[in-house]
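Translate structure to sequence.
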């Protein structure tokens, strides 16, 4: 996986004060989270472990994140980690949802059946109303 992170130049306190004159009413900290997007650009070789560690650092940044570039593997729709599963929830015409998910964002229903967060919620609502026993979510996928 190839990845480059671009941290924009941090805005100054003077920039914040100027925007307050134009009507911004939030705190300096909140303003910073709005002004400091992180751009992820896939360019050089990066291992999955390095990507996971970088993801933790990026999550702690607190601002918006933009990802650009070609992914060499299928990516989880929720977190961009490597996708190991597709959502198997039936959506009609013998088709399934097929949302790409990593292990932590998939819900193992049984056998080789996994649901995304939304369809797992829908499925548990349905099973609560019927006599079908809902499987307990497990992380042993």
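Result:
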């Amino acid at each position: 996986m190839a990845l480059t992170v671009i941290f924009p130049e941090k805005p100054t306190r003077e920039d914040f004060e100027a925007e307050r004159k134009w009507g911004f009413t939030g705190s300096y900290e909140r303003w910073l989270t709005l002004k400091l997007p992180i751009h992820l650009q896939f360019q050089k070789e990066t291992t999955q472990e390095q990507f996971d560690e970088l993801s933790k650092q990026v999550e702690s940044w607190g601002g918006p994140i933009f990802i650009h570039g070609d992914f060499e593997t299928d990516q989880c729709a929720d977190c961009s980690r490597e996708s190991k599963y597709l959502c198997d929830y039936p959506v009609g015409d013998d088709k399934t949802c097929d949302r790409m998910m990593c292990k932590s964002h998939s819900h193992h229903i049984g056998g080789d059946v996994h649901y995304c967060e939304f369809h797992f919620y829908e499925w548990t609502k349905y099973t609560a109303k019927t006599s079908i026993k809902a499987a307990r979510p497990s992380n042993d996928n």
